[in-house]
Structure formats: C-alpha cells, structure tokens
Amino acid sequence: MSTWTIRLAERRDIPDLLSIEVAQFPEPWTRTMLIDEISNLATRRYTVAVEDEKIVGYLGVMYVIDELHVNTIGILPGHEGQGIATSLMNEAWGVAKGRGVQRATLEVAVSNTRAQELYFRFGFSPVGVRKNYYERTNEDALILWADLA
C-alpha cells in the first residue's frame, strides 16, 4: 500500500506540476499560470501529494465568497487509481467546510469519465454544459455543482 502526505504547494514544486500538466491535459497550464495560482493565498489553495519525496498528485481550488471552485487536479501517470485524488479532495473538503464553504463547482471534459466518477463520489451533479470549453480539442465540459453543507 502506497502512502503519501499532503502539503501546501510551493514555488519549488512548479517543475513537477508542469510535468503532470503536460502528461495529463491537452491544454496544460503554463509556468506563469501555476506561479500566479500558488502565490495567490487569499483566494487560492494548492496542495500536493508527496510520496518518497516525489510529487504524485496535486489539487488547486479557488474560493469565491462561500463557494469553492475546483480549478485543477492531476495525478502523476502511473499513480492513478491509488486514492491520491480522493485524499486530495478529502483534505480540501475539510478545509473548505472549516472556512464556511457551502457549495462547490467545477468543469470537467465530457470524455473524462474517470474524473467524473471521482466528483460524483463527492456529491457533484451535472447542471449544464459549456460548449467547446476546451479550445484545443473543442470538447464540451460538464458543469458540476455539489453542496458541502
């Protein structure tokens, strides 16, 4: 059984996050985007899962008043299906509830059924579709919402 710890992301983690972004997403975030997100501690919270001193996953969320927006979640290829994403989400949910967050939202590619299964386990339900949300692939995104209260 693999074990990992979750901690706040730091600037030194950017190369590892970029590697996961490029491996996982057709429209990976850039170094500048990730630095901006990690640096914005007032409204953003980025965490990493670390196993044997290696980042195996990360999660980025944004707080908007009493709502949480899941910006991104990525798992290092070869480490999927081990519960890393679930651990990151559980940790984020606990912090969000402590901050008084009532609801959460996100967009997910309609073809990304693995991520959708994760989100459904956390109480997310589809409420709409953003047509051609992903520019490079012209793929639609499902809009999901969940109640945290």
Keywords:
globular, 7-stranded mixed β-sheet, 4 helices, Aminopeptidase, alpha+beta, 149 residues
- SSE pattern: EHHEEEHEHEE
Number of domains: 1
The fold-level CATH name is: Aminopeptidase
CATH class: Alpha Beta
Per DSSP, what share of the residues sits in E-state strands of 2 or more residues? 35-45%
Per DSSP, the total helix count is 4
Radius of gyration: 15 Å
- The beta-strand count equals 7
Task: Give a description of the structure.
The structure is a single chain. The chain is α+β, with helices and mostly antiparallel strands. It has a single domain, classed as Gcn5-related N-acetyltransferase (GNAT) (Aminopeptidase, 3-Layer(aba) Sandwich), CATH 3.40.630.30. 30% of the residues lie in helices and 39% in strands. A hairpin with a 2-residue loop joins strand 3 and strand 4. The longest helix is centred in the middle third of the chain and has 15 residues.
